[in-house]
Every structure is written in structure tokens, then in C-alpha cells.
Specification:
With 244 residues, this protein is α/β, with parallel strands linked by helices. It has helices spanning 3-12, 46-58, 82-93, 109-119, 132-139, 156-166, 178-188, 204-207, 211-219, 230-238; strands spanning 21-25, 33-38, 63-69, 99-104, 125-131, 168-174, 197-202. A 7-stranded mixed beta sheet has the order 1-4-3-2-5-6-7, with helices on both faces.
């Protein structure tokens, strides 16, 4: 998709109204078990690719949506424009027939869920793919977010019951420590059925290949080979992204 078309899609997505997801790339291979990996993709990394691959294999997902967001729950500015992050997403998954790319108007999973329900059949078996830190934010023990959802809930407990009654969460944690942390979090939150949370063990060395590390290396003039797909590395270098 060319840059003008990406910009047009971004401008057409509003962040205040009914939650919506616009399609940027459609999966060629579909099925009822849908994985959704929502991230800022700032930039897309080899760890992102590997996480999607492992979640797809370990939990028999038929298709996965890589979902960028126009809004973010906690962040208002990025070092890289959304247009470039979407362009890099397209380069990352161009040859992946099971992977679609979408753009979400809203940041929160309860809102994303509503948008997905309007796009996919009732029998869709939805799995959100998240990291451990994101899962803890979803549980929102301090109730920082429930008054910001599009739908009105009577606090975080009702919001969590709604979310987990309609979706599963695949939670990726680093080898050796992640499962214990997930179990601890689950023991604190009775509104979430245990069978709705699946644990995915993720090697620590892959977890170190983060977008934060890519940005740090670029600022310091260090190589990023191996941290991002080759096509993304070329894009970053050609457009001088994260260099300042």
C-alpha cells in the first residue's frame, strides 16, 4: 500500500466515537481461531515476529492480526510517525498469508473487542496475544482505565468479566519466571476465569530483542542487524528513523 493510502486510512480513523478497526492487509488463510497482537510496533522487531509464530503454533491459531493503534493508553508521542510504523508492518508481514494488519481507533482491549465482534463471525475464537507487562495493565488493579473505555462499566471488575467472557489471553513470559508471575496475578483477580488465560514461555534472549533496544542502538549509532527483519532495517536506515 502506498504512503498516500496509508495516510488516508489513518486520517479516516477517529478516536472518540464507536471503536473501529480498518484493514490494511487481509489474511489469505482464515479460520475460527483468531489471534490478535496489538502493539505500537515502534518498530516491528524479530521478537514480535517470533512471538506471533510461537503463539500460532502452540495454540493452533488459524490467523493472526497485527494491530497498530491510533491511540495509546499511556503514551501520546512516538519517535516514529504512525505512517512509517504501518509501512514497516507491511514489510514485516508481506509474505505471511495467515497474518492480517489492522489499525485500531481505540487502545483498550474491551474497545478493540467490540470492533472485532463487528468484523468477525460469532463463532470466532478470539485470543489476544500479550506480554506479561501488558497483561498486568489489562488487569488494572489500581483501576486507572475503566472510566476511559468507550462502553460504560461499573468499575474494573465488570469490565474484566465482559472482556474475558468473550476472549482468551495468551500471555508470553520469559523463560523460568513468567509462569509464576502469571499465576500470582491470577490469584489476585477472581473476575478472570483461569481457563481464559494461556501461558506461552518465551526465551529470555528473544525478549531482549525489544523495540526499545532498537531505538537505543540507533540513537547511539550502533547496528540493529538481527533485532528487526531485514526489510525493516533497510527502511529504518533509508529514512533515518530513530537516529536522533
Amino acid at each position: 500500500m502506498n504512503a498516500d493510502r496509508i495516510k488516508e486510512i489513518i486520517e479516516s480513523v477517529g478516536t472518540a466515537g464507536v471503536p473501529e478497526i480498518l484493514s490494511i492487509k487481509k489474511a489469505e488463510m482464515t479460520g475460527p481461531r483468531l489471534g490478535v497482537f496489538a502493539s505500537s510496533f515502534n518498530p516491528p522487531t524479530t521478537a514480535h515476529v517470533e512471538l506471533i509464530k510461537r503463539a500460532t503454533r502452540n495454540f493452533s491459531l488459524d490467523q493472526v492480526m497485527a494491530l497498530a493503534g491510533k491511540a495509546n493508553a499511556d503514551k501520546t508521542a512516538y519517535e516514529c510517525p504512525l505512517e512509517d510504523r504501518i509501512a514497516m508492518l507491511e514489510l514485516t508481514f508481506a509474505e505471511q498469508p495467515r497474518i492480517s494488519i489492522g489499525l485500531s481507533s481505540h487502545a483498550f482491549y474491551v474497545d478493540i473487542l467490540e470492533a472485532l465482534e463487528r468484523q468477525y463471525p460469532d463463532q470466532t475464537d478470539l485470543h489476544f496475544i500479550v506480554g506479561l507487562d501488558t497483561f498486568e495493565r489489562v488487569l488494572d488493579f489500581e483501576d486507572q482505565y475503566s472510566n476511559r473505555f468507550y462502553r460504560t462499566f461499573k468499575g474494573r471488575g465488570e469490565a474484566l468479566s465482559f472482556l474475558f467472557s468473550k476472549s482468551n489471553f495468551i500471555v508470553a513470559g520469559r523463560s523460568g519466571a513468567g509462569l509464576e508471575k502469571v499465576e500470582l496475578l491470577m490469584s489476585r483477580e477472581k473476575a478472570v476465569p483461569s481457563d481464559r488465560v494461556k501461558y506461552l514461555d518465551f526465551p529470555g534472549d528473544l525478549g531482549d530483542l525489544s523495540a526499545t533496544e532498537v531505538r537505543r542502538r540507533r540513537r547511539e549509532g550502533c547496528p540493529i542487524q538481527g533485532l528487526v527483519p531485514a526489510a525493516v532495517q533497510n527502511y529504518i536506515e533509508e529514512h533515518a528513523i530513530y537516529a536522533n
